[in-house]
Amino acid sequence: MARLKDICTINPKSPGFQDELTVSFVPMPKVGENGEFDPSEIKTYQEVKKGFTYFQNGDVLFAKITPCMENGKGAIAQSLENGVGFGSTEFHVLRPFPKYVTSKWLFYLLSWETFRNEAEKSMTGSAGQKRVPKSFLDEYDVDLPDISTQEKMTDALDKTCYLISLRKQQIAKLDELVKARFVEMFGDLADPCCKFKKCTLAETCLDADDIKCGPFGTQLSKDEYQNEGIAVWEIPQINNGFTSKPTHFLTIEKAEQLKAYSIEPGDIAMSRKGNVGKCGVFPDYYEPGIIHSDVLRIRVDSKRVIPCFMMYQLHFSRAVQYQIETVSSGAIMAGINVTKLKQIEVYVPEYELQQRFSGFVGKVDRQKLTIQQSLDKLEVLRKSLMQEYFG
What we know:
This protein is α+β, with helices and mostly antiparallel strands. Helix content is 39%, strand content 18%. The protein has 13 helices and 20 strands. It has helices spanning 4-7, 45-48, 68-71, 103-111, 113-122, 134-139, 147-186, 235-239, 252-257, 307-316, 318-327, 338-342, 351-390; strands spanning 2-3, 8-10, 22-26, 42-44, 53-56, 60-63, 74-76, 84-87, 91-96, 141-142, 197-200, 211-213, 230-233, 248-250, 262-263, 268-271, 279-281, 289-291, 295-298, 345-348. It has a four-stranded antiparallel beta sheet. It has a four-stranded mixed beta sheet with strand order 4-3-8-5. α7 packs antiparallel against α13. The longest helix is centred in the middle third of the chain and has 40 residues, at 147-186. The protein is globular, with a radius of gyration of 22 Å. The chain starts with a strand and ends with a helix.
């Protein structure tokens, strides 16, 4: 066994560079939830030497703030300008000692679901601003294999993750097909000459409370989470298009107290912060649940507006996306509230046209389901390997 602080440097200090040195700048949005890393933005050292986190090629970045940490944001720093990078202060940086551990093995450890769950329990700070403390990383114990064994482990995980990536690319291409069909049928909704009726998002609903944010504070305490019961739907499930199952549940009694925050088939769920605006239609094969405080629920009048069409308008319309970006605010992380979301302007085409689009999406979704089933099996394999290697 070894503690992380004995096999890597955690949050190394910048050695200092010439002010004119060009370096990569990597803010939080440039790091993905599956190891994606974009170092293409370039700044001078003078621009970033204060107020940003330093790292170099081979370092492992770990998002410490909620909900980025829970969503799995992290990556191996690579292809950095002059081998040097700076980024968000919401990253912990782990620099492996080559004698003991590889960057890739360390990255997979930090990606392990069990590790993230333990990190979540260690978080400190107020709601919405909780962070994993450095002390958690310092004292975390790992069963450390030798370098050769680490490389065999990561090779197996690499192959599995590659296949997972291919399946996700197939799904992404089908999503692009839907987007192209949306534009073909409805045109550019940002065009001032758009012929469709315009109204606020609130006006597409029957009741003022049909657009609602999940319960805050003591109304939904993590201490009340169960291993089974009524599901709590959170950002990770929205990001995955409701293909991943919930991990937190409430008792029937608690869910009844929070029924005003219910989510039912046909409701649109939107990420309130982090990946602001990401949304999905709650499927009819799930039982109603409760939305998390980071989630917004939109319940449109289905006799006038088909949820599938509205969800894709929220995703594909440049006009709507611009409005969401404009009203999203936050000192640390952008977010949108209910009041501002209700005033977002949307378009309502003829119902028959919405139906035609929804029917096309249904056909594509059936293709996606086949690919998703293969993806699910690969995800199970990946989790099984992670548990075998790190459990």
